[in-house]
Design a protein that fits this description.
The chain has 271 residues and is an alpha/beta fold. 34% of the residues are buried. The chain has 2 domains: 188 residues, 3-Layer(aba) Sandwich (Rossmann fold), CATH 3.40.50.150; 60 residues, Helicase, Ruva Protein, domain 3. The strands form 2 sheets. Strands 4-3-2-5-6-9-7 form a 7-stranded mixed sheet. A two-stranded antiparallel sheet has the order 1-8. Helix content is 32%, strand content 19%. Helix 7 crosses helix 10. Its EC number is 2.1.1.182. It is found in: Cytoplasm.
């Protein structure tokens, strides 16, 4: 059980509770919430971040899947200050949270490491409603988020998040900052949505399909991973070497590939 709480961390929920008070203070200061902000915390757990966040905002939303922790949070904090949304963050509609007209969301959390990648993809769908996001993640995931083309860490996550967000690696966290301590090191990252005008893909769904296909078999050449999607003539027109691998191509080239495809005339219907 987590020391002094009576709650046993559940592996299926990826529970590692943040206990380092100095680090907690640094995270809250990085989030820098204003009283009127609409702030939502993912996975509040035992409330390590919840309490100091509540001290700085008029109202806080949290999303928690563990029913025992939901009950604990509802007993500990008054409903007029804290709204506890019981459920899975992977399916939660963050855009549904009530907020003042024209205001944006701030999302924060010590994300469960076992679902962090799919959760980041889910959260990217709400970029247009968000002012910023601050997350504690496994350091390996943060390394992938900020990786440069040509490195082994550079992948689909890098490209898709880099398209929507400016990403800053803010803080490091050793295992002993948690109870129970995880077997990995962790890091805090900030994601700030890019202006819509900076996102140059004409068809963002097509862009996402191209990126997913390219990294589907990352050891193969683009000529093979994008076979049936981009022809040799298309690669030639774009000046992209089809013998390169997905991890060698910068974000801008994936946007160019998708936009070239979007501009092609539809294939003639079969007779």
């Amino acid at each position: 059980m987590s020391a002094g709480t009576g709650h046993r961390a559940r592996k299926r929920f990826g529970q590692n509770f943040l206990v380092d008070r100095g680090l907690i203070g640094d995270i809250v200061n990085a989030v820098a919430p204003r009283r009127e902000d609409c702030v939502v915390e993912i996975g509040p757990g035992l409330g390590a971040l919840t309490e100091p966040l509540l001290a700085r905002v008029d109202h806080l939303h949290v999303v928690e899947i563990d029913r025992d922790l939901v009950a604990r949070l509802r007993r500990r904090f008054p409903a007029e200050r804290l709204t506890v949304n019981e459920g899975d963050a992977l399916s939660f509609d963050f855009a549904s949270l009530p907020r003042a007209a024209g205001s944006h969301l701030k999302i924060v959390g010590n994300l469960p490491y076992n679902i962090s990648t799919p959760l980041l993809f889910h959260l990217a769908d709400f970029a247009d409603s968000v002012r910023d996001m601050h997350f504690m993640l496994q350091r390996e995931v943060v390394e992938r988020m900020v990786a440069e083309p040509g490195s082994s860490d550079y992948g689909r996550l890098t490209v898709m998040l880099g398209y929507r967000f400016v990403i800053d690696w803010l803080l490091d966290a050793p295992p002993e900052a948690f109870d129970p301590p995880p077997k990995v090191h962790s890091a805090v990252v900030r994601l700030i949505p890019r202006p819509v005008a900076d996102r140059q893909a004409v068809d963002e769904a097509l862009f996402a399909r191209v990126v997913a296909a390219a990294f589907g078999q990352r050891r193969k050449m683009l000529r093979n991973t994008l076979k049936g999607i981009v022809s040799d003539a298309g690669f030639a027109a774009l000046g992209i070497d089809p013998t390169r691998r997905a991890e060698e191509l910068p974000l801008a080239d994936y946007v160019r590939l998708a936009n070239w495809l979007a501009a092609q005339p539809p294939a003639p219907a079969a007779a």
